[in-house]
Amino acid sequence: DGGITQSPKYLFRKEGQNVTLSCEQNLNHDAMYWYRQDPGQGLRLIYYSQIVNDFQKGDIAEGYSVSREKKESFPLTVTSAQKNPTAFYLCASNTGNLQGRGNTIYFGEGSWLTVV
Amino acid sequence: DQQVKQNSPSLSVQEGRISILNCDYTNSMFDYFLWYKKYPAEGPTFLISISSIKDKNEDGRFTVFLNKSAKHLSLHIVPSQPGDSAVYFCAAKGRWTETSGSRLTFGEGTQLTVNP
C-alpha cells in the first residue's frame, strides 16, 4: 500500500537533547513537508522540500533542521534550540512537481514529541 | 499574520441536521482551497477542494462554497452524522512558484461535534 510512514509514534526527549523524527513515503511524490500542531492551533509549516537535496524554511523553522538526501525520506531533527518542542508533528507529501501545480497534500499519522 | 482563519473553534449540531463550517482568508493570491478532517492523534485526511475559478463543489454529503469577493469559504455537511465528529481544517494554496511550490496555509481548525 502506498502511503506516508512516520516513526516513532511517541517520543520522549530530555531537555538539551536532539531528536530525529522519521518520515518515509512510497508515493513517488517530489514534495514533502513537516507541520507542527499545538492544542487549539492550526497546522504550522516547519520545513518543506520540493525536490531531493533542496529544502526551504517554513513559518516556524527555528530550532529545527531537515535533510532530503533521498526522494522518499525527509527526516526532521528537533534540536535543543527549539524552546517549546512538545507538540504533534505531521509529515506530508504531494506531487508538487516543477512542471505544474501541486494538488492534494497527503499526511502521515503523526508523531507525538514530549519533553520530559 | 494569519492568512487563513477559522473563527469558530467549535460547533455542535444534531444528527441529521446541517453543519456549516466557515473559513476566511486574506491573501488574494490563493487559488485553491481544501478541507481536511482530523481525528485525535491521527494525520489529517483530505475531504474536498475547490478551485478559485469555481464557486461550488459537491461530493456526496459535503459541499464547499467559495465567495471570492468576500474571501470566504464554507463547508456544508448534510445530513450530519456522529462519525463526522472531528476537527476540520481549512487550507489554501497560492499560485505555484519555484520558491513556494505547493505549500498549504492552514486555518486553526474547528471541532465539530455531531450529537446523536
Structure class of chain A: mainly beta
Describe the biggest sheet of chain B? 6 strands, mixed
H/E series of chain A, N to C?
A: EEEEEEEEEEE
Number of strands of chain A: 11
User: Which stretches of chain B of 5+ consecutive residues score pLDDT under 50?
Assistant: none
Secondary structure: helix percent of chain B: under 10%
Write down the overall geometry of chain B. Answer: globular
Mean pLDDT of chain A: 88
Low-confidence stretches of chain A: 97-102
Which band does the percent of strand residues of chain A land in? Answer: over 45%
Shape of chain A: globular
Euclidean distance between termini CA atoms of chain B: 38 Å
| Average residue pLDDT of chain B | 91
Number of DSSP helical runs of chain A: 0
3D architecture notes:
The complex is a heterodimer of chains A (116) and B (116). Chain A is an all-beta fold and 116 residues long. Helices cover 0% and strands 48% of the residues of chain A. In chain A, strands 2, 4, 5, 6, 9, 10 and 11 form a 7-stranded mixed sheet that branches. Chain A is globular and about 35 Å long. Chain B is mainly beta and 116 residues long. Chain B has strands spanning 4-5, 10-14, 19-25, 30-38, 45-51, 56-59, 62-67, 72-77, 86-94, 104-106, 110-115. The interface between A and B is medium-sized, with 34 and 29 residues.
Produce the secondary structure layout:
The complex is a heterodimer of chains A (116) and B (116).
Chain A: E1 4-7, E2 10-13, E3 19-25, E4 31-37, E5 43-51, E6 54-57, E7 64-66, E8 76-78, E9 87-94, E10 106-107, E11 111-115
Parallel strand pairs in A: 2-11
Antiparallel strand pairs in A: 1-3, 3-8, 4-5, 4-9, 5-6, 7-8, 9-10, 9-11
Chain B: E1 4-5, E2 10-14, E3 19-25, E4 30-38, E5 45-51, E6 56-59, E7 62-67, E8 72-77, E9 86-94, E10 104-106, E11 110-115
Parallel strand pairs in B: 2-11
Antiparallel strand pairs in B: 1-3, 3-8, 4-5, 4-9, 6-7, 7-8, 9-10, 9-11
